[in-house]
Amino acid sequence: MDKYLKIFEPAMKKWLAEHYSPEEAKKRWERTVALDEKWIREEGDLGGRKNAMASNMLETYAFFAFYDSVDRSFTPEDLQSMIDAAMGKSIRMLSHFNLNKLLKRRRIVKLIYGYLGSYQKKAERFRGNAWGNTWEIRLNPENHEKGIAFVYDTCPLNDFARRHGYIDFLPNLCMIDHVTCGAAHGKLIRHKTLADGDGECNYWILGDREPEALADVGSK
């Protein structure tokens, strides 16, 4: 079993036990595992550990395999509960970071942009080959003077969801970005997403006390 599906296994099995008989729950869990393994084998892992972004794709396989195996009866509220059960402790640990302070330090911002720039160069080199349809990224195209900003022009999660008919549920996974930013006292301003058909995902991450963050409405 893939390690990302294993992370969610206890919460998923708990949900199955609450909604099905033991025999049916076992059957649907086996389908979840089989689908996850099939997609990793056939769709690829975007380079695995060599691609720092690949874990997002593997987690998506796990969630959509479960979503499909329960006849899409899994709700956004169920997803939130499952993420909290499986990842809540890790997400809450982000509260030790304060983006209001960190993103005012030029050295920190420079390091983050350096990390994103390193991914950008590798993606340009390996996209279409070992990293498949990995994300295409542009750094701060609107020249924001505060925070961290970047745009994804393509997203393999979006490609996969559209190809397999799961685009209705993808925005619920995209909301995890808001949860993680919020946990670190940050605000994600994002008014365009590929999942919503906007042609790009535009990220602008600020501390949650910045005027722009407090004034923002309508982020996706």
Mass-distribution shape: globular
On the 0 to 100 scale, the average pLDDT is 96
N- to C-terminal separation? 32 Å
Number of strands: 4
Strand order of the largest sheet: 1-2-4-3
Into which percent range does the helicity of residues fall?
A: 55-70%
**Main pleated sheet:** 4 strands, antiparallel
SSE order in H/E notation? HHHHHHEEHHHEEH
Number of helices: 10
Q: How many domains make up the coordinates?
A: 1
Structural class: alpha+beta
Report Rg.
18 Å
Strand content: 5-15%
Low-confidence stretches: none
In a nutshell, what does this entry contain?
With 220 residues, the protein is an alpha+beta fold.
Topology:
Blueprint: H1 3-19, H2 22-43, H3 54-69, H4 76-93, H5 99-102, H6 106-126, E1 136-139, E2 148-154, H7 156-164, H8 170-174, H9 176-183, E3 186-189, E4 201-207, H10 211-215
Antiparallel strand pairs: 1-2, 2-4, 3-4
